[in-house]
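note to self: the first set is below, dont mix up w the second
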Amino acid sequence: HVFDFDHRELKRAEAVVLVTPAGKSAHLELGVAIGMGKLGYILLDSDSDRWDVMYRFAEKVVTTVEDLVKELGAQ
């Protein structure tokens, strides 16, 4: 049931936000959403001084909630 719920909600979403630290499932959900043509954002935690190059698939990578709100408001 969890898979069906998550898949349905990913299809309904306009944008998806990955909040780090995050596990494999969350990263896969972001990838699926981006593959569906959804806007994908990544909110890095304050301890992240490096990040994976594949995060470039996201619309934007931000480090503060304030920056995330600005980005979401601009869409």
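second set (the one i keep forgetting abt)
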Amino acid sequence: MTKICYVLTLVSCVFFSCKSPGSKEVPIQGTWHLLTGTTITKNDTVITDYTKGQKMIKIINESHFSFLRHDLSKGKDTAIYDGGGGIYSLKDDKYTELLEFCSYREWEGRSFEFTVSVSNDTLVQRGVEKLADLGVDRYIIEKYVRVK
């Protein structure tokens, strides 16, 4: 009986560790430097170059993500510091973040669904940020480059 349990356990582990055929999980783990962000609110589009005067990185491991942004003048001009993080899930190209920590505390505990794609060393993240109680309803597109 012990051998049968062992074999069944081994077969179950192999079965559940395999990805389904056709699964197209995007390789998002790593450290990413944000280059540009496009925010579309109603008919207004704003493109931000995150390489001028500031720097933002996003770190994604097996289960968690975090982001950090600050100004490059060490607060002498316009002081900027943002940070946040939490857990995420990824199924194919559907990426969902649960923001557990954020310098904008009213954003904590919220989920955001995105579509992600990676081409060579570039990650593009697209989706809606909607927080009705805060008056936020916008579509964002963020373009990152992998930090080597």
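remember for set 2: The chain has one helix and nine strands.
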